[in-house]
Amino acid sequence: MSEVMANEDQKRLWRALAQGATSDWSQLFAGYASCIDWPSAYYWRDLIEFYPDARVILTYRSPESWWKSFEKTILAGISHSTDQEALCLALISRQVFGGRPHDRANAIAVYEANVRAVIATVPPGSAADPQSGRRVGAALPASWRASTGPVLSQSQQHQRLSVGSCTELV
Q1: For 30-60, how does the pLDDT look when each residue is reduced to its tens digit (9 = 90+)?
Q2: How many CB atoms lie within 10 A of CB 105?
Q3: 47 with 53: CB under 8 angstroms?
Q4: Residue 135 DSSP code
Q5: What does the alpha-carbon distance between residue 88 and residue 83 come to, in Å, rounded to a whole number?
Q6: Cα 38 vs. chain centroid, distance in angstroms?
Q7: SS3 8
Q8: Gap between the Cα atoms of 82 and 63, Å rounded
């Protein structure tokens, strides 16, 4: 998300996609070797279809732990947003959580359903959930293996984000 926030072209492309534009993954990922976190995490089904050899890493935490993190980071951004086109409102609040991101039971149910869907959908065998060791992915193409730096977990990224308003969160 921080890369999208910092790049106006990325912000424009992701916002258009969230509003229903046709996906152009080649354009969205031009110059990038991988994607993690929002907004790409929402489109994992489309991405594994477009990039069938891509690795999918499912980071699982207990629903309570997930809620605490979500509440402190993304939900805080949603709560402060005034930009109706911001991804935290247009995509995360409305599309992912059906307009009910503050409803703890609903949000946890959506989280758990997504975890089940990833496990049921992603071919097993080549990527692991770092917490459980469960193998849940497919191999990453060689052209995507180059990286300019370490990959941070979602919680590490969130610690680096200053959640003020969702306008700042894309």
Answers
A1: 988 888 888 999 999 999 899 888 888 888 8
A2: 9
A3: no
A4: B
A5: 9
A6: 3
A7: helix
A8: 28
